[in-house]
Amino acid sequence: MSGEEELQRANRHGLLLYDFGASPCARRCRITLIEKGLYWDTQTIDLSRLEQRNPAYLEINPNGFVPTLAHGERVIYESNVITEYLEDVFPETPLYPSDPWELAQVKMWQSAEAAMAKDYRALMYQRVMGPLLRLTRSLEEALAVARRSTSDPADLAWEKRIWRLAVLTPTEETEYQDRLLRWLDALEKRLEDRDSLVGERFSQAEISVYPRVAMYPYIGLRIDPRRYPNVSRWMRQLRGRPSFARTLSAQDRGLARLSRTPLLPWLARTLRKDEGERTRWEALSLAVLKRAARRFLGGEEIASDGAAAPARRVRRPRTGEIAPRDAPSRLFGSAVAGKRDPRITLYDDPHSPHGRRIRILLSEKGLAWKTVPVDIGRMAHKAPDFLAINPNGELPALRDGERTIHDSQLIAEYLDASYDGTRLHPRDAYLVAQVRMWLALEAGTHKEFRPLFYLHIVRPASLAAGITAERVDQVVPPGVHPSHLQWLRDALRGEVRFDTSEALAREIILGKLEVIERRLADRAYLVGDSLSMADLGWFTRIETFPALGLEIGGQRFPGIARWLDAIRLRPAVAANP
């Protein structure tokens, strides 16, 4: 019997992980499964071929990312949602703390890693995936491979941008690198005189943060033990843990070897030259490297030529074979419901969809709060005084007595678990996972939504207040990173940058609305039989869409239109415009 057959026989829970070896998000799920002593089957989704954009895979995960976990017929996507679901359903080896405040801290580290990942991904595509793609495939070959998985114009436009080494400008590369090193500085400070990020023991915080930090050298950011002694010590300890060692993929090993050479920077510089500008030695070197690239990088997943095989068939979740056990969510078992004497402060901006959903939730629970305004039109959320409250630099943030919580979903879960009143998270583990997945789908619109939001909501409001591109330095608080100043200047000039184009950004968002419309065709709410945070999250996002030039009328989206009207009738919604 082969090892794969043995694994399938041992996989009595019917777990199927849609995976890619070099993905840090997928790796944290593999680590979690091993730590919990679980067996699973694997379906590889090759990101180098855009297989995550295959329509068959998008039916399973409409966000189009890896990983996804199928548990019998259940489907769970987004790595942090998957690890929390595993904690709820397989609690025997706990990885999340039971203490409510420590639990919140673990989830804030997960949120911090997700915020950092936005900068990391852009540099990874610019410095690693772009040069490797261009080395091993012509533009025509790259598009031919991509078209075997997707015909979406936005996907193909993104593939062109990667191949052309145009994900970031040189100035943006420097700015993104600076922000990533600042993030590492904060991690170094956190690990002073401690071996774990939260509490006194290994937790999901380590599992969530380590895989991407371990990839910093891939993009040319060496973790120097002299500058980062605490991070280096922490990483050495984790590398020796069996679950971390076993999940280091062939692609990771290849990229780690590559990062210890000067090859990638040289490759990026050389590939930017026209063929006629390259020396004979450079042309010969590129030819040799092209032949060696697949072997050196550890296999098909990283690089292949234009004659590569079509995208593999996407396996469907098992039907009827496995009946996953029902389990309660830990959300209401760890915190202290019925908490009294709240002293709540909300850091907010009236334009923030994330802030509005928390205001509605506070009202639903009958809680009073004080608002501290943070003007996003002046980049106050990126200023040092606010970064001391929320290092992610995003609104809202909430203070409950001496505790500070950031990330709107975490704030919502904390409030729901800590205070009586309307519950916006179900008690069942799988239903809570569904709420989190809908919010992950909403968060997946960030790249498209943010430039539209600044162009069509922040820009008009700022110009009406007399804030112009020429006055940015006068109105933005001191200490804001230059990259954020430039973003605001570009927005005020109407020149903010999109990953693809403004038109394609709208199409991507409308594609997500099609998923919601199908869900609401025969139901009143996104999850279960009552209002949840999934509804509030999407409601506060969708109500901004008309201002962004997105048509959401009843003719195309009748289910959404009916759902919007019903939510608007709730007193807490009307009281918090």
Give the SSE map:
Blueprint: H1 3-10, E1 15-19, H2 24-35, E2 41-44, H3 55-60, E3 68-71, E4 74-77, H4 79-89, H5 100-136, H6 139-147, H7 153-163, H8 170-190, H9 204-213, H10 229-239, H11 242-246, H12 250-259, H13 263-271, H14 280-297, H15 331-334, E5 344-348, H16 353-364, E6 370-373, H17 384-387, E7 397-400, E8 403-406, H18 408-418, H19 429-443, H20 446-464, H21 472-475, H22 482-492, H23 502-520, H24 533-542, H25 558-568, H26 571-574
Parallel strand pairs: 1-2, 5-6
Antiparallel strand pairs: 1-3, 3-4, 5-7, 7-8
Q: Can you characterise this structure?
A:
- By secondary structure, the protein is mostly helical.
- It has helices spanning 3-10, 24-35, 55-60, 79-89, 100-136, 139-147, 153-163, 170-190, 204-213, 229-239, 242-246, 250-259, 263-271, 280-297, 331-334, 353-364, 384-387, 408-418, 429-443, 446-464, 472-475, 482-492, 502-520, 533-542, 558-568, 571-574; strands at 15-19, 41-44, 68-71, 74-77, 344-348, 370-373, 397-400, 403-406.
- It folds into three domains: 3-89, Glutaredoxin (3-Layer(aba) Sandwich), CATH 3.40.30.10; 100-297, Up-down Bundle (Glutathione S-transferase Yfyf (Class Pi), Chain A, domain 2), CATH 1.20.1050.10; 328-577, Glutathione S-transferase Yfyf (Class Pi), Chain A, domain 2.
- It has 26 helices and eight strands.
- The strands form two sheets. A four-stranded mixed sheet has the order 2-1-3-4.
- Helix 2 (24-35) links the parallel strand 1 and strand 2.
- Helix 6 runs antiparallel to helix 7.
- It is globular.
- The termini are far apart.
- The model is unreliable at 1-7 and 296-308 (pLDDT under 50).
